Structures are given as structure tokens and as C-alpha cells.
Task: inverse folding
């Protein structure tokens, strides 16, 4: 069964770092692309990071560009989003997404305090 199960997130002070995980079942994370989105209260869901299936292409649209690292671990079949220099405006629910299959993770809350 195809499933994306997220973990990580939580409360962090401004300037801090967090790593989000997306454990996948049903397909290989090192074969298919993965994206990360976020949705703040009252705002639309927006793309923050993308990695191609082969891993040779990544994309980090604004506004988190330069503060993110996206990666995959074949052994754990898990995708990761490392976030650094977090700001209060980064507070949102973060989602992993498998675009090939149209499947979302359940979302995880990230709260950045000032």
C-alpha cells in the first residue's frame, strides 16, 4: 500500500533548525520525485522544495531558498527536509508529496517562535 508517513517538526526558536522526515511505503524514494509543501493559516499551500527521482535536480522556490536541504535515504526509504535559520514566518504545516502518485503525507506542524 502506498503511504507517506511524516515525522519531525515541532516548536523551535527563530534561527533554529529542524529536520522533517517522510517515510515511504509502496515505492522507492530514490526512483521517484518528491516534493515538500507548506501551508500557513489562511494561506494557500506552496511548494518549498523538490528533488527529482534520480536526485540530480533540486528546486527550492522562494521564500525558503538557501535555507533548505532535501535528501533521500534508500536504506530507510525516507525523504528528508532539513530547514535552517528558521523564521517566525516559516510557521506552517509542512507536507511531503509524491507527484508521480498524487499522494500526500499527513502533514506536520512547524512553529517558529520569535
Result:
Amino acid at each position: 500500500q502506498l503511504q507517506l508517513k511524516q515525522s519531525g517538526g515541532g516548536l523551535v526558536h527563530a534561527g533554529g533548525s529542524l529536520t522533517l522526515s517522510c517515510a515511504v511505503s509502496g515505492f522507492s524514494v530514490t526512483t521517484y520525485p518528491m516534493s515538500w509543501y507548506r501551508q500557513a493559516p489562511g494561506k494557500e499551500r506552496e511548494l518549498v522544495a523538490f528533488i527529482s527521482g534520480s536526485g540530480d535536480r533540486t528546486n527550492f522556490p522562494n521564500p525558503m531558498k538557501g535555507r533548505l536541504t532535501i535528501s533521500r535515504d534508500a536504506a530507510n526509504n525516507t525523504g528528508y527536509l532539513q530547514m535552517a535559520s528558521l523564521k517566525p514566518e516559516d510557521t506552517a504545516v509542512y507536507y511531503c508529496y509524491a507527484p508521480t502518485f498524487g499522494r500526500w503525507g499527513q502533514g506536520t506542524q512547524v512553529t517558529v517562535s520569535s
User: Anything to note?
Assistant: The two ends are 41 Å apart (CA to CA). The first strand starts at residue 3 and ends at 8.
